[in-house]
Design a protein that fits this description.
heterodimer; A: about 160 residues; mainly alpha; about 95% helix; B: about 270 residues; about 0% strand; globular
């Protein structure tokens, strides 16, 4: 267990060489690498947190916009319903007016046709009366019979009109 | 030294250098190697550790390979060990402490390889390491505290106030100075003797168990003995790691105690000392 100064100095030099080599090849590059990796991981986590926050904000914005869109859609739907009802009312009104107009036209036309028919009938009655008169005159003039005939004829005409 | 080597050879298992020397006692090479047996194995450890460190860190990648991963784990563990005690300022001391740990551990473990010898089972190696730590600690003290602060630290950082304070300081400073200097000087002694004793004892135990194993089967003229040393190999593995860790941790603490303290650290240090 003797202390040998020569050995001690040799070993000191050996250790100092090892220290230099390790500092050069292990500690400096690897600690730098570890620090860099640690920073990168911390940065990544920070980025992830930021992205999460941005995503949450985006989600909130999306939700708000969706609510706005839903609100707008609801309003538009209500407006469309109102518009539809208005258009419906207009259509019904127009249809009523058209129907009234057509009814009036039809009434007028019926009136005209009735009048025309009455005229035609009258003309026909007149011509028939004239024809009957002519026949009666040709046969024999007999007042009561003629009167009866005319009356009978008028009855027939009335019944036809009905 | 040759005598000590011969003493050691009788207690520890023979290594490759001893065997060569026994085979060729007159060769100048074997004589030289035998003379520098311990530095030879230290040099071997230095070479192995350097080559491994160089090969692994030569192409250090962001995504580490298996070897790089292992070395990074060791580096990170040691860095955390140092910075865990000293705080962020400890990063500056990680290379020294880390190298010390790896070197001591490798020297402890190489003795477990048949034909090799633990340089730490020699007092010269452990004294070397302890002296290096001692010099580094004192150098750190002078560098961080300044020459006056360093002497003040050794004198117990006196801050006298008033006449009584100065009178007390006149008595306490020399007393503190002597105690602190003695304390600083005993640190390398305790460091070196602890490591040497443990590793030497462990190597001797293994060598004696090997001899006992051979003796146990001597009746049958067996060329191979009973492996009685195996349990002690496991013990030696544990002791090697623990001793390297103890040496490194104490070195960290010695450096830390030499650094300028904040008030709360000063208080805790004083209370621990008390």
């Amino acid at each position: 267990m003797n202390i040998d100064v020569q050995q001690i100095l040799t070993q000191m030099v050996g250790f100092l060489i090892l220290l230099w080599l390790m500092r050069r090849f292990a500690w400096t590059p690897l600690l730098g690498l570890l620090d860099e990796r640690r920073e990168r991981i911390a940065r990544s986590f920070s980025d992830i947190e930021k992205e999460k926050e941005a995503l949450a904000a985006l989600k909130e914005e999306y939700r708000t916009k969706m609510l706005e869109v839903e609100q707008q859609a609801r309003l538009k739907l209500q407006e469309a319903v109102r518009e539809g009802e208005r258009v419906g009312r207009e259509i019904i009104e127009a249809a009523k007016q058209e129907a009234d107009k057509r009814f009036s036209q039809a009434q007028a036309q019926i009136q005209q046709e009735t009048e025309a028919a009455q005229l035609r009938l009258r003309d026909e009655v007149v011509s028939l009366a004239l024809g009957s008169a002519e026949r009666i005159i040709r046969q024999e003039l007999n007042q009561p019979r003629d009167t009866a005939l005319v009356l009978q004829y008028l009855e027939e005409v009335k019944s036809r009109e009905k | 030294m040759t005598e000590s080597a011969a003493e050691g050879a009788s207690l520890e298992a023979p290594n490759i250098v001893t065997l060569l020397y026994r085979a060729f006692p007159d060769s100048p090479v074997t004589t030289f190697l035998h003379h520098f047996e311990v530095p030879f194995f230290s040099g071997l450890v230095i070479a192995i550790v350097s080559v491994v460190a160089y090969r692994v860190s030569r192409n250090a990648q962001r995504v580490p390979t298996r070897g790089q991963n292992a070395l990074e784990a060791i580096v990170e563990y040691l860095d955390r060990l140092v910075t865990g005690i000293m705080g962020p300022q400890g990063r500056a001391y990680t290379p020294f402490i880390g190298t010390l740990f790896i070197y001591i551990l490798s020297m402890n473990l190489i003795g477990l390889v048949p034909g090799m010898h633990s340089p730490t089972s020699s007092i010269n190696t452990t004294v070397t390491l302890a002296l290096l730590v001692f010099i580094y600690v004192q150098y750190t003290g002078v560098r961080k505290l300044g020459p006056v602060g360093y002497i003040g630290h050794l004198a117990g950082n006196p801050r006298p106030k008033g006449v009584m304070g100065y009178a007390t300081a006149c008595v306490s400073v020399p007393f503190n100075l002597v105690i602190h200097v003695m304390g600083e000087l005993t640190k390398p002694i305790s460091l070196s003797v602890r490591l040497f004793g443990n590793i030497f004892g462990e190597d001797v135990l293994i060598a004696q168990m090997v001899l006992l194993g051979i003796a146990a089967l001597a009746f049958f003229n067996s060329p191979v003995g009973l492996p009685l040393q195996l349990p002690f190999y496991l013990l030696a593995l544990l002791t090697s790691v623990i001793q390297a860790l103890v040496f490194s941790l104490l070195s960290v603490i010695y450096i830390f105690l030499m650094l300028p303290h904040h008030p709360h650290q000063e208080e805790s240090h004083t209370s621990e000392g008390g």
